[in-house]
């Protein structure tokens, strides 16, 4: 089997030739992926998130039923649409399901986090192969399944899946999660649509997301009364603060709020002392947090019992706390590619008059006394 896979790998390398005429496929927001269309193929170049001067990976997508063009740019050859992929990322499984391509997933890793009923049924029945965990990729099991591609989150230290590069299986390193803005990440769905033969559907969904997101943003941009917003909660000895350039920081601003840590320029999360966050967020009007609680939802009493510092917050005292119970929702499977859903909820929380009396949130719920 290994010899056969290496032979496939060699054939893929032989298919690389001089680039023909190419046209850029416009990506309005995404910064870490570039798509170029040539005669009979689409080339995707993924930037290295950890070294801007380097390319992480190049892929050349050629329709499965077509002959491989004589002239191709450098990159791993991928025949599309994928029909037996190995998917390691729950948010991508959710997107493929939305695109109507759930059947393209023939195997999964970390499948217990993929909250899709049909997929779970297929895993239990053995129709979809369980390949274990992304933290310790079982190379022999992957070779035995022989997927047409492996979808996995890119890691700076890729030791867990590096061996797959040598066995002829295209490894699609996804770094959409490293994008620094809501629409930037969401636009990656256009690439994933190409992988599963759902280009038009993916483009259509993204255009609808873009329209709603920017429409909501424009509705609140001129509102003068903007609530001050604190985000997150203490975790042991640290409070991880989302930077103002992160998706959370940007959505707070886009929803017409003033972020407590507006001057934290990071596009990720930064650990702070809980006492520092408490001091800066003491007078915040609204406090938003995420938590796990298997039985019931969070209450004011639970918050006070967790840390007595919380009770000093103005938002706590004024019952202006909103939380997402991550044990009860598909929050992380849906919202990364649907930032308009989050923006909708943030706008409702900050400016309820904009969304109207009939609007009900899906994820963030008011924490009751």
Summarize the structure in words:
This protein is of the alpha/beta class and 369 residues long. 32% of the residues lie in helices and 21% in strands. It has a five-stranded mixed sheet, with helices on one face. It has a five-stranded parallel sheet with strand order 8-7-6-9-10, with helices on one face. Helix 3 (117-125) links the parallel strand 7 and strand 8 (129-130). The radius of gyration is 23 Å and the shape is globular. The termini are far apart. Residues 1-16 have low confidence and may be disordered.
Uncertain runs are: 1-16
What class do helices, strands and sheet pairing give?
Answer: alpha/beta
Give Rg in angstroms: 23 Å
**Shape type:** globular
Alpha carbon gap, first and last residue = 61 Å
- Tally of extended strands? 18
Q: What summary fits the major beta sheet?
A: 5 strands, mixed
Oligomer category: single chain
> Which strands sit side by side, in order, in the main sheet?
1-2-3-4-5
How many helices? The count is: 14
Q: Give the mean pLDDT.
A: 93
Please estimate the helix content.
25-40%
- β-sheet strand percentage: 15-25%
């Amino acid at each position: 089997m290994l010899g056969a896979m290496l032979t496939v790998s060699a054939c893929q390398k032989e298919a690389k030739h001089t680039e023909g005429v190419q046209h850029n496929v416009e990506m309005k927001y995404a910064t870490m992926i570039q798509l170029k269309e040539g005669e009979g193929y689409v080339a995707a170049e993924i930037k290295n998130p950890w070294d801007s001067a380097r390319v992480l990976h190049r892929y050349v997508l050629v329709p499965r039923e077509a002959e491989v063009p004589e002239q191709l740019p450098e990159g791993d050859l991928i025949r599309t649409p994928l029909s037996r992929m190995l998917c390691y990322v729950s948010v991508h499984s959710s997107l493929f399901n939305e695109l109507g391509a759930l059947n393209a997933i023939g195997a999964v890793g970390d499948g217990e986090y993929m909250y899709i009923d049909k997929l779970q049924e297929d895993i239990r029945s053995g129709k979809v192969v369980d390949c274990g965990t992304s933290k310790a990729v079982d190379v022999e099991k992957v070779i035995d399944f022989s997927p047409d591609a492996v979808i996995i989150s890119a890691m700076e230290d890729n030791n867990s899946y590096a061996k797959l590069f040598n066995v002829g299986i295209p490894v699609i390193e996804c770094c959409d999660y490293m994008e620094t803005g809501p629409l930037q990440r969401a636009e990656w769905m256009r690439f994933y649509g190409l992988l599963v033969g759902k280009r038009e559907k993916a483009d259509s969904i993204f255009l609808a997301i873009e329209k709603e997101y920017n429409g909501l943003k424009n509705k609140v941009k001129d509102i003068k009364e903007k609530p001050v917003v604190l985000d997150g909660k203490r975790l042991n000895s640290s409070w991880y603060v989302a930077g103002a350039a992160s998706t959370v920081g940007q959505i707070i601003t886009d929803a017409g709020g003033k972020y407590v840590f507006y001057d934290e320029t990071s596009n990720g999360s930064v650990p702070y002392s809980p006492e520092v966050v408490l001091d800066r967020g003491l007078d915040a009007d609204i406090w938003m947090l995420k938590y796990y609680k298997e039985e019931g939802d969070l209450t004011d009493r639970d918050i006070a019992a967790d840390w007595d510092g919380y009770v000093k917050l103005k938002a706590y005292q004024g019952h202006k706390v909103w939380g997402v119970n991550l044990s009860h929702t598909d929050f992380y499977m849906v919202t990364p590619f649907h930032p308009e859903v989050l923006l909708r909820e943030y706008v409702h929380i900050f400016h309820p008059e904009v969304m109207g009396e009939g609007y009900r949130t899906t994820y963030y719920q008011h924490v009751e006394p």
